[in-house]
Amino acid sequence: MQADFVYEPVFDGAGMQLSVSVLADRDAIRDQMRCDAEAAGFRVLECCGLDEFGSGSGSALGDLILVDCADADAGAMALLSRLDMRAGKSGAQLVVSTTMDALDAVFGCFAMSGAQILVEPGRADRIIAIGRVLAHVPNLRLRELAEEDRLMLLRLTEQVGSIAQRLEGLSSQVDAGQREGGGAFRLESPAQGWHAQGDEYVVDNSKAAPRLPDGALIRKLIRQRQARSQFFDAELFADPAWDILLDLAAARAERRQVCVTSLCIAAGVPATTALRWIAQMVDADLLVRIPDPHDRRRAHIALADATADAMARYFAAIGIGEACELAAA
Known about the structure:
Blueprint lengths: L4 E3 L11 E6 L2 H13 L3 E6 L1 H6 L8 E6 L4 H17 L2 E6 L4 H6 L7 E4 L3 H12 L7 E4 L1 H35 L12 E4 L2 E4 L11 H12 L13 H14 L4 E2 H8 L3 H13 L3 E6 L2 E9 L1 H13 L4 H7 L1
Parallel strand pairs: 2-3, 2-4, 4-5, 5-6
Antiparallel strand pairs: 1-7, 8-9, 10-12, 11-12
């Protein structure tokens, strides 16, 4: 099957055509990715299975690396970690597709390269990912693009731009709140909140930072939000950023770690979309990526301190906090 979009060949600053490495064990998907990369203007440098590429000594990498990894076995994870390191150093672009079952292991392999991770994607999802790579190529000339794909790329561009704009504003608000009131989980010396009377010191606790409410209260709020889907179309209320923040706030209150698969489910949108939100929120310093101390190939996601502070103040402002906990007790 021929791709229904065609680009002029893409070149680097030295006039060399950009190359692609296609790595996949599933034959049909490997052939599909190769076809789409060639149609996008890339020269195929390598097209083989993961084991075959991993066994090669010093195999060259393309400017774009398309990987399909459905199984999280040790050999594949070691190869993905090496690809992440090499791409991070060389500046190559990585697009990795995987399954929901393997997502946690695959996600933990990528910390340096800024890889696009797609979860059980269709062909259109892969084409869009290639389009995002091409968007960073200067002086690219588009010769032909089907109207359906044109609209899809336009919507993606608008979505990514909207995510970045919204999170930039949210990050600024969080930073402002942090500067004003201090962290929710930070012990601070009473530099401005006390005054001396002789040899006695009186501490002013009127502006003490609130704590996050009990995790059970936040979980109840999450269940109430989810109940709307029983009566209305769930897409009407899709708000992945807020659902991610709520789930992580509950986890922080419960002193529990959250894996990326669990967080994608909590976001209430397709996993690939959720990963896009998570990546943008990490870039905006709203979330932090925490390597698993027991398995360096895995990673967890958590609220940044300033974000936790902002969430605690939000809950206090709407009356969900210690007062509710005392009333429940």
